[in-house]
Amino acid sequence: MSFSRVFTGLIAGVALSPVAFPLAASAASIDINTMANGFGVIALNSFTSTSINHIEGPVYAGGNASGTNSMTFNDKNLSDVAVGDVTGALVVGGDYNGDLNSGGFGSIVVGGTVNGDTSNLTVPLTTGATIDTAGVSAAFNATATALSGMGDSTGASFDGDQNAQYNFVSGAADANGLAVLNLDETEAGAFFTGSNDLKFDIDGSVSTFIINVAGSAFDITKSFNNNAGVENIMFNFFEATTLSLNSTWNTSLMATNATLTTNVDVRGTFIVEDFVATNFEVRPFQSNSVFTGTLPAGEIAPVPLPAALPLALSGVIALGALRRSRRKAA
């Protein structure tokens, strides 16, 4: 029998024999809506707190996280959140640098180590965990890009009324309950500076209102004082690299390439590259929830390779060696 026939038969066996060559168990997929509806902060890279000692909701950091004070996370007792194969109220892909204190709820899962005092911690702590941080970043970046390409919904608009209050109007939702409004950089600059309040007029058909914002840098001084009925709104700063919140902000935002610095109290879900908290509280909404809308990108699942592929390749190599030895013997 020729080697080529043996090789062909082996490959056919790999393709046709589920007993000899089972598929590997795949990693759990990254569900962006589970994360966006669960975490108060999603920092795709780093999370840093320079002055406060607690965060009221769950936090995810893909890289390192640090706090200058003895920190407590999730003291509002929101549910743990799934990130692929792990679940926690604080999930850190790299190291956590700082002390962790009692008073919070839920599990803490760290991919690296905790460089600080944990002797007062009263919740479960896991270190050295495998966390799919690359999958999280890819999923949220793809979502931000996809949202930025959507056109305005029918009837969507923005304007100022006689009291110099700026209104965002959703218009009618699509078949999935999604409404979209787009602001260019000039429009956004006018809306986010000054001292006037921002308000929203959301149609009853809308379950998720996305406001796409063009522009690379914003120093936001306008207030979002009304935190009722805004849980399903998400601002998508798809071009931003720098954001600074300097007045009360009461709705969710996504800026997957930006460093966000907060100097005030904020409510909602904040999905950014780096999150820097200087003097603030990060809180859930008064309903004790974070973002409640549905991002349209869904989930990105890893594609498993056959677990027995290395075994199959070693078999091919062995057959090659056998063929060479027979040639020498002849």
Characterize the structure shown.
The structure is a single chain. With 330 residues, this protein is an alpha/beta fold. The protein folds into two domains: 3-25 and 304-329, no CATH class; 30-300, no CATH class. The protein is 19% helix and 30% strand. It is built from five helices and 26 strands. The chain has helices at residues 3-16, 32-36, 133-148, 185-191, 309-329, and strands spanning 30-31, 41-49, 54-55, 59-61, 65-67, 72-73, 81-83, 86-88, 90-92, 96-97, 108-110, 114-115, 125-126, 157-160, 166-169, 178-183, 198-201, 208-213, 217-220, 233-236, 242-245, 252-262, 266-267, 270-277, 282-283, 299-300. It has a 15-stranded parallel sheet that branches. A three-stranded mixed sheet has the order 14-15-17, with no helix packed on it. It has a two-stranded antiparallel sheet with strand order 1-26. A hairpin with a 5-residue loop joins strand 14 (157-160) and strand 15 (166-169). It starts with a helix and ends with a helix. The relative contact order is 0.16. The model is unreliable at 2-25 and 298-313 (pLDDT under 50).
SS summary, helix count: 5
Assess the beta-strand content as a share of residues: 25-35%
Q: What portion of residues is helical?
A: 10-25%
Mean pLDDT score? 82
Q: Rounded to an integer, what's the Rg over CA atoms?
A: 25 Å
Shape: globular
Number of strands: 26
Question: Main β-sheet: number of strands, strand sense, barrel status?
Answer: 15 strands, parallel
Indicate the structural class: alpha/beta
Terminal residue distance: 15 Å
- The stretches of 5 or more residues where confidence is low (pLDDT under 50) are 2-25, 298-313
Number of domains: 2
